[in-house]
Amino acid sequence: MRGINKVILLGRATRDTELRTTAGGTPVSNIRLATNRMTRGTDGELAERPQYHTVICFDRLAEQTGTHVTKGRLVYVEGRLESRSFTDKAGHERAVTEVIAADVQFLDAPGTKTIDLPAQDHDDSDDSDAVDIPF
Asked: What confidence tens digit (pLDDT) does each residue in 25-46 have?
C-alpha cells in the first residue's frame, strides 16, 4: 500500500533565502519559515506557539525563491517531508527533517507590512510534542 507524504505550510520567511548551486550545477535554495499556532493554556489565555521549518527548493523553484523570498515575506508551501542525517564539522552525527518544496506561492508584495493570521482556537493544554532540537 502506498503512503501519503504531503506538507502544506503558510508562514513568513525568518530570513532572506539562501541560494547556492550543487557541484553538478543544480540550483538549491533554503528557506527558513515560521508558522504560528494558537493554543489555550491551562489559565485559559491564548498564546502563540511558533514553529520553524526548513524548506528546500530545487531547479527553477530555487531560482525564483532565491530572488523573491526575503525576510518577512508571506509564503505558501506545498511539498513533502524528508529526513536525513549527516556528520557536522565537529564530527557529531546530526539528524534533520526538511520540507522538499513542490510549489511555493508568494502571498504578499515585497516590503508590505506584516499582518497577523487568524487565530485557531484549539486546546493544547496537554500537548507534549515539545522537543529540544539542537540546531
From this structure: 999 999 999 999 988 888 889 9
